Amino acid sequence: MTLDVRDLAFAYGDESVLEGVNLTAESGELLGLLGPNGSGKSTLLQSLNRIHEPDAGTVLVDGDRVSELDRTELARRVGYVPQDEQGAFPATVYETILQGRRPHGGWSPGRVDRAAVEGTIEQLDLAAFTSRNVADLSGGQRQKVRLGRALVGDPSVLLLDEPTSALDLKHQLDVMELVGEHVRDRGVTGIVAIHDLNLAARYCDRVALLSNGEIYDVGGPDVLTPETIRAVYGVEATVKHHRGRRLIVTERSARTPSVASAAHSGPDDGRYCTR
């Protein structure tokens, strides 16, 4: 399953958030979506599954326009894990994860649905909380429940908005390993918005950097160079290698304007990169 984004644009009223975004993610690939706060990561994810309707451009899932899929079919194909949820109805862990099976079996879950829920609960180490109200859980536990609700539906595309933000170090690693294995073992197309550059470099096959609502660069983790990090984030960083992995150490704020910001100062600024 391939996800293609072509010339996507979105604005909140007169405020442009995304402009001319082109991106492709392949089956069995985990693509990290990186960029500072306000760069458009969450809005892009929400535009891919029609939480937001793009103002322009096209999103295709295996060649089919997302805009032409009905909501049930879209929910079967695309799983989404938000950063947080407000105003949810009281429900247990089991009931919440079971909601992810609804596009497949409606309101009457069968044996296959229940088996999928039980397997997902075990996979996420949530068995001790099966009957607990989700509202009574910690932030990290609630995030794992939201992840389980997305995984249990076995979608072809998995969109995750900062799934590790409320987790401690151990569970950050556990969740990223689980997501990576799920994506590769099942041939899922995964896109994860994430702030931690080291987690992205370790677990993502490729990364896409957003700056001011546009794609600044796309490629393997080796695109995370000191120059790129300075340009996109406005910080100085050192990139090292440890046991075959890329290790990024942030040092301090950059003292000069970032290349990404300077790129919008005029059409002749050749430093802007849109690979």
Automatic annotation (TrEMBL):
Residues covered by region (Disordered): 256-275
Domain (ABC transporter) ranges: 3-237
Signal sequence extent: none
Alphabetic keyword roster: ATP-binding, Nucleotide-binding, Translocase, Transport
Biased composition annotated in UniProt, kind: Basic and acidic residues: 266-275
Gene Ontology MF term list: ABC-type vitamin B12 transporter activity; ATP binding; ATP hydrolysis activity
Keyword Secreted: no
Pfam families to which the protein is assigned, alphabetical: ABC_tran (PF00005)
Class of enzymatic activity (EC top level): translocase
InterPro entries registered for this protein in UniProt: AAA+_ATPase (IPR003593), ABC_transporter-like_ATP-bd (IPR003439), ABC_transporter-like_CS (IPR017871), P-loop_NTPase (IPR027417)
Catalyzed reactions per annotation: an R-cob(III)alamin(out) + ATP + H2O = an R-cob(III)alamin(in) + ADP + phosphate + H(+)
Keyword ATP-binding: yes
Transmembrane segments: none
Record-listed E.C. numbers: 7.6.2.8
Subunit structure: The complex is composed of two ATP-binding proteins (BtuD), two transmembrane proteins (BtuC) and a solute-binding protein (BtuF).
Function: Required for corrinoid utilization. Probably part of the ABC transporter complex BtuCDF involved in cobalamin (vitamin B12) import. Probably responsible for energy coupling to the transport system.
Protein name (Swiss-Prot/TrEMBL): Cobalamin import ATP-binding protein BtuD
